[in-house]
Design brief:
about 130 residues, mainly alpha, Arc Repressor Mutant, subunit A, two-stranded antiparallel ribbon
Length: about 130
């Protein structure tokens, strides 16, 4: 299993959080499905050229939050989760943030075009597709 995970050294986020959020997003989006096997901790660490400890921390957090489970001597697998409920929760968060932007933008005299440009710049800086 090859996971498309991009580590950014310029991001303010710790590497384990970057791994955590990208794997979580793969699960929520359906790219990883229930029962899918994740790469071993060692393999992912080698592929990303990072510490095994960092990868283990990301996997531990994913397991603690119920996104994956571990089977001894077999590996880590995507857990059964109601991704639709998770997605709805995330959409609600996005809406809340957008409402806050709508409150703040007029005070800064920002147009919709300027807001969209700010969003694009942030996407580029964070290496978000």
């Amino acid at each position: 299993m090859v996971l498309d995970i991009i580590i950014s050294n310029t991001s303010g986020k710790p590497i384990y959080e970057q791994i955590y959020s990208q794997i979580k997003n793969h699960i929520i989006s359906g790219n990883l499905k229930e029962g899918d096997m994740l790469p071993s901790i060692r393999t992912l660490a080698k592929d990303l050229r990072i510490s095994v400890i960092t990868t283990k921390r990301a996997y531990d957090e994913l397991e603690k939050d119920g996104y994956i489970y571990t089977v001894a001597a077999k590996g880590c697998f995507v857990a059964n989760k109601n991704t639709e409920i998770i997605r709805e929760g995330m959409l609600k968060q996005i809406e809340d943030y957008m409402r806050k932007i709508c409150e703040l933008a007029p005070a800064c005299n920002l147009s919709n075009e300027e807001l969209i440009e700010m969003f694009r710049i942030i996407q580029e800086e964070e290496n978000i597709p």
